[in-house]
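for the writeup, i need someone to sanity check this before i put it in the appendix. the sequnce is what the collaborator sent (i think, or maybe the updated version? ugh). structure was predicted straight from it, no edits. if anything looks off just tell me and ill rerun, i have time this weekend
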Amino acid sequence: MPTIVAIGEALVEIMRRERDRPLDRPAEFVGPFPSGAPAIFASAAARLGADVGFVGTVGADAFGDCVRRRLEADGVDCRALCAADERPTGVAFVAYRSDGSRSFLFHLTNAAAALAGPEQVPAGYLAATRHLHITGSALTVSEAMRTLCYEAAQEVHAQGGEVSLDPNLRPELLPASEIRALCEPILQVAGIVLPSGDEAQALTGAASPAEAAEALVERGVRLVALKRGAEGSVLYTAEGVLEVPPFSVEEVDPTGAGDCYAAALAVALGEGLPLAEAGRLANATGALATTRLGPMEGAPTRAEVEAFMQSGTQGR
């Protein structure tokens, strides 16, 4: 049975070929690329050498085949990835701007992903799970998906496993205030939270990202990994604060970088690496993830990330 499991939406992304081509105007697209934050996490963790499982639902269609083929090729256990006849695989259309921002148009809540529920998890599938990863985006998909996430989190926590939460706030899916309420049952059992600055503030109502991270630690979160993109990350624990410098790369596509960061941190901590080394591995993995077009395409193997850490430029 897998030791790391991710639960949530699997979909494909179809994106603008060029920057500054808004979604409300005719222009060329490229894709489909396998995607979905939890699926990207699973792919990245498996490519780093972990024993990973993914729980979700795609359509019994070509896009679903695209997602499954990629996950299986990366070594992800897909026994709990179902294919539904009655709904198509979810799709996200993405446009990039020159300033680095993005626009998303999701077809998800009425897609196959919304059909995922507790009944599709094989008996005993989570028995060996030492790390369960949940995203805020998964919690917005449907009531059935939320139930699946909540029940799995309780099960893994009760057996002594780690639960991580990436808020992954998507205002295109649901207002941040509502996502905060949906995240609360996961926060109650989460040992690791991986927000951006805005997400940390949205979760806590704090005035700054640092205050928000400290508030999460005070409520019992073991590790808050504050993701800062090109500025690296900051790790907050009850013992103190650790700034981890970034790696310098030429960005092509930032989508999925945070999920790859989260995957690397989970793998490193599961291996017992010291926090500073785990943070460095996570930063390097997240940086490499931005160097190719497509949310899973830049996820490196362990050999690739270690070679990059030897030769890559770090620090600002």
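The chain has one domain: 4-314. Residues 80 and 122 are 7 Å apart (CA to CA).
thx in advance!!
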